[in-house]
Amino acid sequence: MPRPATLTQLLEDTARRSPDALAFGGLTWAEAAATVRRMAGGLAEAGIGPGDRVALFLPNRPDFLLLLLALARRGATAILLNTRFRAAEIGNLLERAAPRAIAIARDFPAVDAEAVLEAVPPAQRASLRLVIVMDGRGMDRILDLPVKRRATLVSANEAPDLATPEAECLTFTTSGTTAGPKLVLHRQASIAGHAADVAARIGTGAPGAALLAAVPLCGTFGLASALAAIAGGAAILCMERFDAQEADALIRAQWITHMVGGDELLLKLAEAANGRPYAPFAFTGFANFHGQADRVMEASAALNLAVRGVYGSSEAQALFALQDPAGPQAAIGGGIPASPEAAHSLAEDGELLLRGPSLFDRYLGDEAATAKARTAEGWFRTGDLATAQEGGGFAFVTRRGDALRLGGFLVSPEEIEAFLQAQPGVAAAQVVEHEGKPVAFVIPDDGYDEAALITACRASLARFKQPERIVVLDAFPVTDGPNGPKIQRAELRRMAAG
Fold it and tell me: Which pLDDT does position 140 carry in this prediction?
């Protein structure tokens, strides 16, 4: 079948091939496509059209996918926000992305979305003109802004398709070397085409294929797998929050065949399974976030999970490359690129360089970072170290630099450090990772109050970014270098482990 160039084409092609097959949220693919067309009509009535940006602050629900597809049909851009973000992070992203509207779900028990928005300084949310409420609760205004209700969206007349391959489609957030996360902008062609490429590699078009969407859809790991399911026509079951016992029951009851997850998620699932194997999976994409690959592969063999290592990023998209499940590198991140048009190379220092149709367009509002991310020959600099793999492809080695892997997300330590240093009584801060949790080292100033600092972190930072421990030091360990004193982060990691 032809490679789709827009998300509209991606969905409509599947609806034509399998109109009566189950899609998600109790809808068939024909019903899902019709709902998206009506939802796009509701967005048109609200004045959302080509070039507009809409922030999605939504949990893993069918409505997340429906609204994303409807925005694409309108030629609008979705700014994807993690529901674990709080006011400090949401405000920063709203200020930089300047969306016209934001979509929230007030019936998601894990997050009081309205309270989070109210805590964002008005200047940071000044671009908002509308709140889209994707639940059944009635309210006319939020933040003194008009409300567009879900029921109104889906009762509108169908809207014509305004999607184009070059239309700006969505942004992921990723941390770089600055204090705030980057907004990684993709166009529709990169998102839709990659979904089709991945679908062909992992078999979401096979009869009976079903995906458990247990990883956040706001990130590329969760979204790339869900869109591959749409491309192939696999049923999608969304989990708002991962619960191992619930996931175990869903896999058995719904004959799940596809899934992605990090090592902690998969090991929790294995514990819930308690040695009872599943019907054989076709694909489980595995990210070794916390160094537990051996245990995961043992669980995969015992439970029929068909785990294999994958590689990706917000810039290249998750599942950019996949390992051969029967090969000797099955547990290692990396493999052969999903797209036959993609390529990889290694720089002299071992940095992984990528090319391909799944790559991002630019960092929104950051031309300098965009230019720095590419070589003169057009390769994307991943910031990861890799090696050539026997039999083709590449094997991920480690992340270059000091980025932290927290809660399944790559986080710059400077992002947390900047927040800590902005609090009263903190003269300086450094953050390192220990066993997947952030540990903060602070040099106190007059008025330092640890309890107040912990309270501030809980109020403003996503839970996975909140320091597990705060260690007070008189000075950071340093070493003299050619460019002056440098903090010994390796020594801080040793101290965190001790």
Answer: 82
